[in-house]
Amino acid sequence: MVTVVRSTETLEWFKSSYSGGNTTECVEAARLPGSTVIRDSKNTDGPRLFFAQDAWAGFVGALHRPGASGRLGA
User: Any idea where the DUF397 domain is (predicted)?
Assistant: First the structure.
C-alpha cells in the first residue's frame, strides 16, 4: 500500500513517555494510515523517516523485550 503525503506539518506528533527530562536524543512520531513517521525533535523541519506499520511495530516490540535498553550500542 502506498500513502501519498503532501505535508507532515498537520500531523499530531508525539514523543515516548521515556523521553522526559533534558535528554538530547529524542525523536517524535506521528501516525498515518499504514505507516509511522519519525523526525528529530530538535530539527522538526528536517528529514522524516516513514516506516510501514508492521516494521514499526516490530521495532517497538523489540524494545520491550527483556534486556533491551533502547539505546544503540548499549
Answer: 11-63
- Per-residue burial over 16-55, b = 16 or more CB atoms within 10 Å of its CB, e = otherwise: eeeeeeeeeeeebbbeeeebbbbbeeeeeeeeeeeeeeee
The arithmetic mean of pLDDT across residues 1-26, rounded, is: 69
* Amino acid letter, 35: S
pTM of the model: 0.69
Question: What are the phi and psi torsion angles at 45 (to 5°)?
Answer: -95, 0
Place of cell 544503540: 72
Q: What is the DSSP letter of 33?
A: T
pLDDT tens digits, one per residue of 33-67: 899 999 988 888 889 899 999 999 998 888 888 87
d(Cα 5, Cα 69) in Å, to the nearest integer? 33
